[in-house]
Amino acid sequence: MPTVDVLRARFLDHFDGEPQFFRAPGRVNLIGEHTDYNDGFVMPAALEFEAQAAATVRPDRVIRIHSLNNGKSAEIDLDGAKPEPRGDWTDYAFGVAVMLEASGVRLSGADIVVSSTVPVGAGLSSSAALEVVVGYALLSLAGREVDTVELAKLCQKAENEFVGMRCGIMDQFISCNGVVDHALMIDCRSLASRPVPIDQRARIVVANSMVHHALADGEYNKRRQSCEDGVRLLRPALGEIRALRDVSFEDLEENRDFLPDLTYRRCRHIVTENERVLQAAEALQNSDLDTFGRLMNASHVSMRDDYEISCEEVDRLVDIAQAQKGVYGARMTGGGFGGSVVALVESGAVESFIATVRTAYQDATGHISEIFACAPKNGVGPLTD
Ligand code: GAF
Fold this sequence. Notes:
Radius of gyration: 21 Å
Distance between the termini: 10 Å
Oligomer: single chain
CATH topology of the largest domain: Ribosomal Protein S5, domain 2
Bound molecules: 2-deoxy-2-fluoro-alpha-D-galactopyranose
């Protein structure tokens, strides 16, 4: 991970002046998948993998950005023609600049070098980390106090409207508001959040399946559509429900005849997952790790069978993880169709868990999983080394 000195040196390879430094983390979601865009509940934690930025103000209104990850540079002129999405990494950065301006913040020009340790395609929110660090940097350079809830909303808007991905708010919210050593229980309707401590007896372990299926974005938007269809079809029976958040399991079962089978199963995942997150928050708060683990396992079954967002490799990795000694539970984490698995593991069993899972997964699939134990970090802020 580049320290401030390394980042300064790389900045000076491309630009002039003494930069300010910022960081924004990636995330792992412990439970609550695809519930965010249904006004529901999620429980992610911020990771030590993060996007970092070194940035200075320019006298004009040009924003120049250079990525140390791919060696590429790009720029936009805020006083020039309206910036259009380019379909690459720059959309996350420039989308945020465009949305900030649209929200009434007058930005100054900036020279920015970005560098990220969040693995791309691993379902750990590399894009949200980039959006958030750039948004925070631009606001700081403009001399603005940063409201981290507003910044999360704005970055989500950039992703929805500029990038064209209809994501919910979880990834941007946790990158903005993560709390060290805690998971964050987030109500995605009110945006109220509550830190829940991770019991010292257990560690969060993330295992990257090393596969990422290309259909992810299209399938993501289809799942979202199914949820919206479900709400529309249930409304005549249930009245003015706004989202699946407003539907209980009993409501769903009583009215399942109004829904085509596929829509019903999609809705069942969301309705039961919301319930699981509420129970999981209580379990973690009470240090009931067995219950928490059982809820993680049940969440995976629901994602695999009802929401159909897992894939063969991830299912293998989950099976292997769940079968290890000292494991409370394991499930796929993130948007799906590949990416990572999260497990809650007894602290004393982490080392053997990592070694055994890596070997067993390689034997089963040929892929070498990157596996690491996490200590949750704080959300976005200045980078101090
Ligand atoms: C992706 C999205 F960006 C999030 O908003 C969330 O829906 C997640 O998938 C699934 O829980 O990371």
